[in-house]
Structure to design on (341 residues):
């Protein structure tokens, strides 16, 4: 259930900070990188990284500060309006409960003043989210004790898109997902596919063996370690719109053409996806969760080193990758804007 109450001081303090899209941005490039290429590029998670903009990566889940309530309201709106954004394959129930419990425990440790999980030792739990007002008791494995399935319940508490990967017949399959902030793909289409099918459209991923190495890494992922990687592109929208999924194509298809026609490339958005990989302890399923961050190129230009590096990376990107990422036709204009030309 959800209760209306005056937010406690800890919540007011957390939400009172200024919104700065660079302060927690997982900048995707090493300082010395000048030319981008796809790679598995994983590293241990829960290790904070300082950047020219601030810090990222301290926790498994970055709530997003003052923007957290707005992001979660948008996620809940999408899930209410489009139930197909939550897809759970047959036999995935245990993995979904495993995911829920793992993340609620992690959240209560990472944000002890804001989120609380009481465990009673007999399968009963009590979850409280001070920011969103969630106050829910549940019994592990009992679907009737939650208002939604366990995976969707979690998705309504965190800003990450949630995916679960399992192994069948020697391959890894995406067998469950709750995704509201996809970048030009559809969870209802992709759930049930293996990693090779999903990544087949990405240039060089199959030919250069990147998917094979990624699959090998996930199959060997130990249960006691959490890893992460960062991916990037320019958003298919010139606004801070996170949901540019195929389901919403009519709502965003004209955004970038309008920006290009206006010649206003300050509106272009750098979209960064921070992915976390966890082998869940009870089921052995692997999470493939995605937290999306956005910053306008106008914001990026506040840090000249970032603007210069991003311009160089975009300029030197192979045409096949630039076309796949969707900005081949206007990348020269983006580079010129970033360089102040």
């Amino acid at each position: 259930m959800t209760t209306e109450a005056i937010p406690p001081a800890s919540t007011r303090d957390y939400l009172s900070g200024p919104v700065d899209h660079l302060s927690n941005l997982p900048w995707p490039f090493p300082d010395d990188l000048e030319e981008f290429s796809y790679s598995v590029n994983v590293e241990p998670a829960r290790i904070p990284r300082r950047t020219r903009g601030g810090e990222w990566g301290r926790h498994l889940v970055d709530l997003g500060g003052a923007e957290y309530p707005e992001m979660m309201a948008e996620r809940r709106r999408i899930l209410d309006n489009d139930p197909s954004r939550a897809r759970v394959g047959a036999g995935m129930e245990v993995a979904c409960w495993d995911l829920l419990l793992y993340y609620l425990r992690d959240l209560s440790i990472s944000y002890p003043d804001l989120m609380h999980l009481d465990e009673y030792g007999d399968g009963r739990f009590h979850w409280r989210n001070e920011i969103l007002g969630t106050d829910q008791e549940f019994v592990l494995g009992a679907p009737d004790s939650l208002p939604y399935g366990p995976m969707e319940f979690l998705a309504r508490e965190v800003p990450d898109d949630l995916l679960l990967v399992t192994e069948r017949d020697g391959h890894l399959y995406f067998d469950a997902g709750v995704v509201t902030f996809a970048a030009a793909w559809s969870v209802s289409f992709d759930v049930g596919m293996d990693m090779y099918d999903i990544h087949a459209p990405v240039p060089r991923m199959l030919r250069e063996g990147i998917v094979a190495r990624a699959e090998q890494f996930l199959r060997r992922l130990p249960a006691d370690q959490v890893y992460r990687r960062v991916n990037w592109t320019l958003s298919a929208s010139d606004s801070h719109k996170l949901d540019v999924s195929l389901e919403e194509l009519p709502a965003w298809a004209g955004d970038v053409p309008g920006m290009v026609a206006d010649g206003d490339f300050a509106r272009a958005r750098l979209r960064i996806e921070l992915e976390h990989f966890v082998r869940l302890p009870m089921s052995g399923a692997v999470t493939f969760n995605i937290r999306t961050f956005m910053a306008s190129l106008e914001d990026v230009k506040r840090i000249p080193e970032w603007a210069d590096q991003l311009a160089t990376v975009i300029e030197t990107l192979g045409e096949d990758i630039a076309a796949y990422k969707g900005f081949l036709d206007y990348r020269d204009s983006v580079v010129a804007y970033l360089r102040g030309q």
Residues 93-110 form the longest helix (18 residues). The mean pLDDT is 92. The radius of gyration is 20 Å. The first strand starts at residue 43 and ends at 44.
